[in-house]
Amino acid sequence: MSHSGRVFKGLGDSMRRQSHIKTGFSVPTDLGAPRIAKFMATVSLLILPVAIVKYSMSGNYWLASYYLFLCALILIDLRAHLSERRLPINSAILLIAVQIGDLILIRHHGASAAFWLFPITVAGFFYCSLWVATGIGMVAMVLGPMLSYVATQDPWFAFRLFVALGTVVLFVHFMLTTMWAMQANLEHALERDALTGCHNRRAFMRLIRGDVPVSSGALLFVDIDHFKKINDLHGHINGDKVLVSVVEAMREVLKGQGQIFRIGGEEFALLMPNTPIELAAMIAERMRRHVSRQAMEVETDVDGQDTGQDSGREIAQAKVTVSIGVEKFSSGEDIEAALLRADNHLYRAKQAGRDRVISSMSPLHDSPHRLDTSRFSRERSEDRSADRGSVLR
Q1: DSSP string, 211-259
Q2: Is 266 tagged catalytic?
Q3: Which one, of 137, 161, 166, 133, lies nearest residue 147 by Cα?
Q4: Which of 178-192, 257-271, 309-323 is modeled with the greatest confidence?
Q5: Sequence-separated (6 or more) residues with CB below 8 Å from residue 334
Q6: Is 298 helix (H, G, I), strand (E, B) or coil?
Q7: What is the second-level CATH architecture of the domain 197-391?
């Protein structure tokens, strides 16, 4: 297995061994926010039994039965959440039932019970979807003050309760939408290569883990030929410029028909869903020719070496070529396996002289010099095994 193949297989295996970790902040989840759900259940189970006993002793068996029903719902959900990590009862139904319970308390006890609308409304945003929680909160914002006025005959208190509840609903809604926008921007930054602007290794590892569904198509493994020599001759700054130019050239050929992932210093994986391997091989060849014809400008001193000085510099043209391995993959197939096959084809292209495209359809694939899988464990040539960390920006 080649250097890149061994690296990706090791990373993929280690990620699969990890326990499932929730990626990203999403409110709500299928389980609701676990801490909020358990907090609501704990508070409710501490308070509702008192109300059940009180109404039973006063002969109001209807209210006692309703709060007993609420306790049963909460206990069922809490037990299922702790044991099976799921909620058998729809969270919106449970939230509506709890809100109705508090509205009943407001009708019988007035202002003292109205304050429970605030924690219940806020918790609802972490227990239901955003718009469901907002809708339930708006209904509580109207019914709560109305029942408070009926119970207390205090219009000023009912008005203040209406304004306060409305402010809470709007603020929490705005806060969560802002957090989601920040999360989306952060995820975009985390999965983009800062130098080239294409997707990075982290984004590609999500594909390997199966976090993102991918349709059948083709996978291109691209490597810039003799990139170590470019860095040694022109310096790493110019090497970065070459990387950016190569990515721009690949984008011009792809025209939005695929995704580019930078998975190593000078290595890129191109994912082309819904693309037959025959068409992908043609696109890869077009891409190879397009890159080789590009005028890659680099800054050098008069002696051809990057000295880091501001004087004595001139613009030179660097000849840049790429080698590409092309492989098909099927929906549901392990992308890592397709990557290893494409890596095998890329290795063949390197061995055959570089600046070429090799796929499973290429004549070289069927030649007597085809590499064995046992030989696939050898390292790449010197420029492939060089330290890529020094050029990763």
Answers
A1: SS---SEEEEEEEETTHHHHHHHH-HHHHHHHHHHHHHHHHHHHTTSSE
A2: yes
A3: 161
A4: 257-271
A5: 208
A6: strand
A7: 2-Layer Sandwich (3.30)
Catalytic residue among 248, 266, 299, 314: 266
Give the pLDDT band of residue 152 (cuts 50, 70, 90): confident
Are the C-beta atoms of residues 267 and 206 closer than 8 Å to each other?
no
How far apart CA 387 and CA 227 sit, in angstroms, is: 11
Q: What is the DSSP letter of 321?
A: -
Cross-strand pairs, 301: 313
Domain ranges of the chain: 21-189, 197-391
Judge whether 250 and 193 are in contact, CB under 8 Å.
no
Fill in the DSSP letter of residue 264: S
Tell me which residue has tokens 């957090």. Answer: 179
**Closest Cα to residue 68, out of 44, 32, 43?**
44
In tens, the pLDDT along 74-87 reads 777 777 766 766 65
End-to-end CA distance of the chain: 27
> pLDDT per residue over 314-341, tens digit each?
666 778 999 999 999 887 777 888 889 9
DSSP secondary structure, 14-77, as one string: HHHHSPP---S--SS-TT--HHHHHHHHHHHHHHHHHHHHHHHHTT-HHHHHHHHHHHHHHHHH
pLDDT 10s digits, 280-314: 999 999 999 999 888 677 666 655 455 445 555 66
Angle at alpha carbon of residue 153, lines to 152 and 157, rounded to 5°: 75
Q: In whole angstroms, how far apart are CA 118 and each of 154, 164, 173, 302?
A: 19, 9, 14, 73
Tokens 């109207």, located at residue: 142
